[in-house]
Specification:
- The structure holds two protein chains of two kinds.
- Chain A has eleven helices and 17 strands.
- By secondary structure, chain A is of the alpha+beta class.
- Chain A has a five-stranded antiparallel sheet with strand order 3-4-8-6-7.
- The relative contact order of chain A is 0.13.
- Classes of the chains: A alpha+beta, B alpha+beta.
Chain lengths: 355, 499
């Protein structure tokens, strides 16, 4: 029997708060567990708490879909899926315990499996959202394929609550891998990237590749045979799951360094040596965590030249934690915000100063 | 309500002189190929939905970004609508021209600009054919995963516009999951890059919003796609069932047991017979339903899954389970499914293909509903089904030469889509809304949701010049459709049971 989660529909109260905010022209700061409140710019506004609106609305393992209210704790949903042998495969980043489904959806941050199975947005199927006009609307749904209308659900993923208040989310789930193994290999970051490219073309069942402290940590996931075969091909030493749990929780020794933390999203082939400070290479090279005292503009310039972008994960390092956008793109952002949240109610300035 | 653009409902369009517009385009972009003669325009009057036709005001065939920009800027200055089109294989009339509009044909943008086998990406122009990408990168052991049935002809720009799928979606996703970056031109002629060379980008996910937007938000200029290594082993099983419901239950059982097949298809008896007559794939013509289950991956994993799935199919009541013995037999099993549409075309003068999606658990109810509707309208329906992801393709058989049959087929199709919405599904899984399902949008979405879509559109194209009359109905249209549907407070066809 599946465990029963606490369930409550608090949408009427949320809509009433948005209506009141509209009437008084006062902005709202959307919050769930506030585990990611440190990300982005500070929002000086009245809090609106989604945690009263919680519970799983629908979950049928044979449909591979789960729908939950925004305030449901992420860990609770993961536990329910785990009991059925399934998972949210994107392994959302965990910053402490209180993360909610809504916050995970709105920040869109994926974990170590992302390059191989997909991101939060790739698994998002639908959502309900309270709009800038205080309407409670539904987009997408619980089916795998749905191309009717614009893909508003995926637009909401990673929008940091700047376009509306997400009240309910539907995700595609996947079966947990039948077999998993962990390996550690002592190689340089550049050698690691070279080998990863070879293994990628050989279709080895890699579902995690992170280089830290001179060691490439690999996670293999798949059928029993393919994982055994890959273990033999790759060599190295057996390792365990602890590294990956610490990586997900940002509790590896790397993260205790006192210098500001940056996240760089880069093409996989960007050389690590080009980065100032100490870098931890995740996502097989597509995501680098950087500890550096370098000036924000300098970090940005390097990221841009390498073909990616940089976000500051330590508050106060820069007034624009997310990489500023080129003009025509920023223009589209402003117009979209003006259309969907004309009174500027939701999380003003969280993503960029004038959004 | 006719399929034709109706200015009273879809919005007023300016009257523009063809010769004068062509002269302005030539002055601005001397190298631009423009077609204005009726016999030259005629071949462009429809896309893959051939029943929906309109001859465009003129056709522009640009070969440079500057030429596309010139077309858009002149159109914007004059308020002339623009319909972008690739290979024209779409099945929902998304590239149907407007009599008062420019048809912007992107087929000259047909170059593969860059392949990076190590990074697993290719940068291509929008007119490149879907299959041409996989053919080009095959030398590196790679392929581009989305494989719509038109992949031999359809172009990647259109795939982005429609968020095209294919038979391997359940495991490999749709176009949105397989692209990294799109460079597009806005109606103002501004070049904007959505997404990037890294796995994510700062700001809103406009790449996801743009994918599947049916040419309403901008014109695709360049696409960076992800490439996957070709699986080491591919095997396909075919299982026969004495009834459709057990076949549906078998699908749920296999997925519930943790197997995600590369492809998972179902066909009903009418489709099986039509396909077998046409292709001689070796299908069991007595079966009420067959399932085709393709497993791909490493040799060991595929062998393990073939065992497991074979057992589960038998447990679920399959009367026969066959594993294709070799590549030739695998191709034959698939040939029947892939040719199901033309096969049905042989047994009926015309057919109309629907594209609804449903939660799989609703399959028995929906099939029963389709059967009842088929009887009511007096038209046969053959069911072909992407069983793994709940995407139905009912094929409605009719004869356009018999008075009233075309209208009945359209009415029946509309009812099937409404049934999909009723059970929590969608009116379109992969073919798009286009012009074809514009009215059913009013069923799937309420007034406020439609208004929200218009707000999204307004951020990109405030004057509504890109592909007007498609994808998102005007609120006026929904009001009209609602009036037609609920006449004097009564639903149409009150005698029919509502499923």
């Amino acid at each position: 029997m599946r465990r029963e989660l606490d369930s409550m529909d608090d949408s009427a109260a949320l809509i009433a708060q948005v209506e009141a905010a509209r009437a008084a022209r006062t902005p709202l700061r959307i919050r769930g567990g506030d585990s990611k409140a440190f990300l982005g710019r500070k929002v000086d506004a009245t809090g609106i708490d989604t945690r009263g609106h919680r519970g799983i609305v629908q979950y049928d393992p044979t449909e591979l879909v789960v729908t939950a209210r925004a305030g449901t704790p992420l860990a609770d949903v993961e536990a329910v899926l785990d009991e059925a042998g399934q998972m949210l495969a994107f392994e959302a980043s965990a910053f402490g315990g209180g993360a909610t489904m809504g916050g995970m959806f709105a920040t869109g941050m994926s974990g170590a499996r992302r390059p191989w199975v997909g991101a939060v947005r790739d698994f998002a199927l639908g959502c309900r959202v309270i709009t800038g006009e205080a309407k409670h609307l539904r987009f997408g749904g619980e089916v795998m394929k749905n191309v009717a209308g614009y893909d508003v659900s995926r637009l909401m993923v990673g929008s940091f609550g700047c376009l509306g208040l997400v009240t309910e989310v539907s995700f595609k789930v996947l079966p947990k891998p039948r077999s998993t193994r962990h390996i550690a290999l002592e190689v340089t970051p550049d050698e690691a990237r070279k080998r990863l490219a070879q293994w990628r073309r050989a279709a080895l069942p890699i579902a995690g590749a992170c280089h830290a402290d001179g060691v490439l940590q690999l996670r293999l996931e798949g059928g029993v045979g393919s994982v055994r075969g890959a273990r033999e091909t790759i060599g190295g030493a057996d390792a365990n799951e602890a590294f990956w749990t610490q990586l997900r929780g940002f509790s590896l020794p790397f993260f205790t360094d006192a210098r500001p933390l940056w996240r760089l999203s880069l093409p996989v082939d960007a050389p690590n040596a080009a980065l100032p400070g100490d870098a931890l290479l995740d996502w097989g090279g597509a995501q680098r965590w950087l500890k550096t005292d370098a000036d924000a503009n300098e970090v940005r310039r390097i990221a841009r030249e390498l073909g990616g972008h940089a976000s500051a994960f330590t508050p106060g390092v820069t007034d624009s934690p997310f990489q500023p956008l080129p003009d025509p793109l920023m223009q589209l952002h402003r117009r979209l915000k003006a259309q969907l949240d004309p009174l500027g109610i939701f999380n003003p300035g969280r993503l960029y100063a004038d959004l | 309500m006719s399929f034709k653009y109706d200015e009273a409902i879809d919005g007023v369009l300016p009257d523009v002189d063809r010769g004068e517009l062509a002269a302005a385009l030539r002055a601005q972009a001397p190298g631009l190929e423009i077609l204005t003669e009726r016999e030259d325009l005629r071949p462009f009057e429809c896309d893959g939905l051939a029943a929906y036709r309109a001859v465009p005001l003129l056709v522009a065939l640009p070969s440079t970004v500057d030429e596309v920009r010139a077309v858009l800027r002149i159109a914007a200055a004059r308020g002339v609508p623009v319909v972008a089109r690739g290979a024209g294989t779409g099945l929902s009339g998304g590239a149907m021209p407007l009599e008062k509009g420019i048809l912007l044909v992107m087929t000259k943008f047909n170059r593969i600009l860059e392949v990076d086998p190590d990074a697993g990406i290719a940068r291509v122009q929008p007119g490149v054919r879907n299959l041409a990408i996989s053919q080009e990168v095959a030398q590196h052991g790679l392929y581009y995963a989305p494989d719509p049935s038109s992949q031999i002809a359809c172009s990647i720009g259109g795939n982005v516009a429609e968020n095209a799928g294919g038979v391997h979606c359940l495991k490999y996703g749709l176009t949105v999951h397989n692209i990294l970056k799109v460079v597009m031109l806005t109606i103002d002629g501004e070049l904007v890059t959505l997404g990037g060379d890294s796995l994510d980008s700062p700001g809103f996910d406009l790449l996801a919003l743009f994918t599947g937007s049916e040419g309403m938000l901008g014109v695709v200029i360049e696409v960076t796609v992800k490439l996957l290594p070709k699986p080491q082993s591919v095997k396909v099983l075919m299982a026969s069932f004495a009834d459709v419901v057990s076949a549906g239950a078998a699908v749920a059982k296999i997925i519930g047991e943790g197997v995600i097949p590369g492809g998972f298809e179902m066909m009903d008896n009418l489709s099986i017979r039509a396909a077998e007559d046409f292709i001689h794939a070796g299908y069991p013509v007595e079966a009420e339903a067959i399932l085709l289950c393709e497993l791909d991956g490493s040799q060991d994993d595929v062998d393990e899954d073939v065992e497991r799935v074979g057992g589960l199919l038998k447990e679920a009541g399959a009367s026969e389970v066959r594993v294709a013995r070799d590549e030739a037999e695998r191709q034959r099993f698939w040939a029947g499914r892939k040719n199901a549409f033309p096969a049905v075309g042989r047994i009926s003068p015309d057919y109309y293909c629907m594209d609804g999606t449903i939660p799989r658990r609703e399959l028995p109810r929906v099939l029963k509903g389709i059967e009842a509707l088929s009887e009511y309208y007096g038209l046969k329906v053959a069911n072909v089904f992407h069983a793994g992801d709940g995407n139905l393709h009912p094929l409605i058989l009719f004869d356009a030469n018999k008075p009233g049959e075309m209208d009945r087929a359209e009415a029946l199709g509309g009812r099937i889509l409404e049934l999909c919405v009723e059970v929590g599904g969608s009116i379109t899984g992969e073919h798009g809304v286009g012009r074809e399902k514009i009215n059913q949008m009013c069923v799937q979405f309420n007034y406020d949701e439609i208004a929200y879509f218009h707000a999204v559109k307004a951020a990109f194209d405030p004057s509504q010049l890109l592909n007007p009359g498609k994808n998102i109905p005007t609120l006026h249209r929904c009001a009209e459709y609602g009036r037609m549907h609920v006449h004097k407070g009564k639903l149409s066809f009150p005698e029919l049971e509502r499923f």
